[in-house]
Every structure is written in structure tokens, then in C-alpha cells.
Amino acid sequence: MRLQSKRDLGVLWAATVTVFVVSAWASSALLPSGAPVTRPPVSYYVGLIGLSSIGLSLLLTWRWVFRTGPTTNATRATIKVLLVVLSVVWACAMIFPFL
Description:
Elements: H1 6-29, H2 42-67, H3 73-95
């Protein structure tokens, strides 16, 4: 997938937020009862779908910044910093269940 415009970027992130919200809702609905589990429950894997969509969008946005993104250096730098911060938060969310 190649992002060509800001509109494409907006559609990508709107779809990402939709997938994340739906997977978060489904994940909370699938939470196991209070019984201890020996392996990750189904809700964990459903939640990974939403987190994976965010990771893919972060990657595609990073590529967009370098290819057809903003023309000013200040805007590019700001978006890069924001993407790095969001990527760190995303990575923490991905490894949090294993801590």
C-alpha cells in the first residue's frame, strides 16, 4: 500500500482507529471469567489485531513522510518525533502482557 496524499493518510488512520476500537470492544467482551488461565485467552489475540493495525499504520505513515509527505522540514521533523513517541508507546503496549 502506498499513501499518495493526506486524504489517503486520513483514510488509513480512520480505518485503523475503527479496527482498534472494534477489536478492543471484542477483546473486552471475550475476557475470561476469574478462573486462572495457563495460556493467553482468545481476548489477547483479538486485541493483537487492533495493535497490529496501529503498528502497520505507523510504518506506512513513516514511509509517507519520506516519500510524499509534508514539504517543510519543520513539519517533517515534528511528524517524525511524534511517530517515534507513538512507536515506543505501541511497542510497550505490545510487550505489556509479557511483563
